[in-house]
Specification:
Number of strands: 27
CATH architecture of one domain: 3-Layer(aba) Sandwich
Largest sheet: 9 strands, mixed
Structural class: alpha+beta
Shape: elongated
Number of helices: 26
Strand order of the largest sheet: 9-10-11-14-13-12-18-17-16
Radius of gyration: 35 Å
Helix content: 40-55%
Amino acid sequence: MKIGGFKVGDFVVKDVAGKRTLIFDCRNCVYSASLAEDHHCRFHAIKLLQEVEAQKIVLSEAYERVYEETQTKMLMEMANFSQRLAIEGVWSYNHLGKASSECEQFFPERHQIVVRIANDLISYDPLLAYLSLLQELRKEEEKMRQSPALYVSCTEPYIATLVELKNRFETMLLIIRAKKLLTELSEVPQTTQIYKALFEADIKPSFIGSKLSFSGIENFNLLDEYSVKESSVQIFADPNRVEKLYYINPPEYSLAPDQYFVLSKTREVVASYKPGRTSLSTVATSRRYFERLYESTIKEIAAFNRIQLTSDDMTSLARVVARYTVGYGILEILLNDRRITDIYIDSPIGMKPIYIVHSDFGQCQTNISFTENEANALISKMRAMSSRPFDEAHPVLDFDLADLETRIAIIGPPLTPSSYGFAFRLHKTTPWTLEQFIDVSFVSPLAAGLLSFLIDMQTTTLVVGSRGSGKTSLLQSLMLEIPQNSRIITSEDTLELPVTYMQEIGFNIQRLKTKSAISVSKTDTEVDPAEALRTALRLGDSAIVVGEVRSKEAKVLYEAMRVGAAGNVVLGTIHADSAYSVWDRVVNDLGVPTTSFKATDLVVVARPIRFKGSLKRVRRVVEITEIKKHWNEDPLREGGLLDLMKYDAGKDSLELLEDNLKESELFKRIQKTSGLTINDIWSEIRLRGNAKLFLVEQKNSLGLKSLLEADHTSRANNKLMLMREEMLEEEGKIDYEQLLGQWKNWINTNLIPNLKNNKPVKINEE
């Protein structure tokens, strides 16, 4: 049996993201798959909605048209209304006029009209049914005014029937919305035009689970627009929402029908290939191989079906197929947007759109709705790539996606009672520099100079802050201040430090990967952080960088610092909000003796700030504190914490506390060990701060954003140190003003011109 060109069995009702969804298989339908443009399609949907309940409708062919709850509700109401009218028999004789021989002559025509409106038209064009009803009502009312009393008497029941129908039609959401549209138009259009306005579907390829929504976009304010992986990204502000909106429009959601056909056929052909663990772990290196393979398949399918595709079309389609086979699907676009810092998919999957944290616009809601099937596929891929268990006994999977510089955490039952949840942390592919932090007011030039100098003087420094405060980014910038003739060993459980990049620009670094801090994800093949740190101390004279001080490795680290085994600069991060809370955490929570904690020289506190209660958060260094050595039990009570710089929110400035400097034990120690006078020390600090500020000023005046990236700032810092060394050897002392002038000249005559011309810069160029 067929209804409107469809076989009755070509549908299924299933739960999708907690919504009962009526899915039609339209691949073999002789009519177009559109509720707005094809009345046969509407007829089939309304008839089925009389038999089944649904909250959403999906028409599936080469791509899917998804109709949301409100749109489905409009048709559901009409289906129920149609059923009630049939049960009530509104076209029966007692509804058509008075039961008399004089009146019955009008019944056949009226019966035909009511059946057409309340049975035929309502099933495939409810709007036309309503408009026809209005037309018939006006016609009869006019006719009654011009007819004798007998006709009026015969017609009163019929008029009552028409008015009742009209009133009931006008309680339907479809008619309410259509009437609103009609009042905004100067003339009544064809009903198809109204349906197009009311039933604008979200369109997506049939093999892609995620749905994109663009509803209401015309009412938003566009804030920014750029491209990622051939996909357009738009950032909007909705006048009625606190958070911004992040909308993507990938090429696979706006292809021509022939291209959708080729894409779907190619996906079917390559679906039989299942990459094994080895293939999955080398996705980044083998990606181009798969794209070439898929491009060849696309070419064959297009030729066989006589579909014209350009070379660019085939290349683009091959990338799409690769994205949804060996790649990470729709998430891959987000994971390649390096202006995103975090991606969150909360359970139950699909209940809410994916949301992200954007480096420029903060938390944003996306237009992407993820699905349970996609979640399951991603979990299977992550389980294979990580070689870690993920089940009810191990409900957390913590893993680094090396090819995308991203850390992923997945949680599942029983830890989360409903479905799965995902959190992605995207690492900056190039490290933050102190110059970049000056540019965004995270630190002041003087604070940057102070930190650079103290790192060079081999201080032990802890960077402190809450999650999202910028402490890991600040740690990266401080690593860049370690002289390149030093060796660095990093120890981290999640690979957030840009070690590979720093190696490429001249730093000597050895990375150690330790066991995950999340106990349910630990495996026997990983090394305990404390053991990794003991190993690092045996690897020779090196600067030690600990990604985050969390647990018992703190004892090993502090013991090494106390006895001088570290022998060089030590850097690390820890969750806390002040220098005192660092002591409390390290001593009382992590079990490090107070005497060992005194090995800490400096605590740098970063914090997100909301000026005057604003919704916008900005990150600032709010405290640089020296840990003095002559106290016994409580550093706060006994004056063991000396603030060198303190943030003033009223001025948005990190202020130098000059009076406190007189009490600094750290500066006195540096004087003894380096032979520098206090004036020399501050000349060094100001030299570094002014040099960094100069790069920021040049970047802003020339619009040369890349000048502040780590490869260029490292060259500039190296050149400044070499010039300083040369002046010291030749003249026996440093003229800081002259040195800064010579260095600025080198920047303007060598670094910047070569950077503009994309030429490599040599440090020894004069």
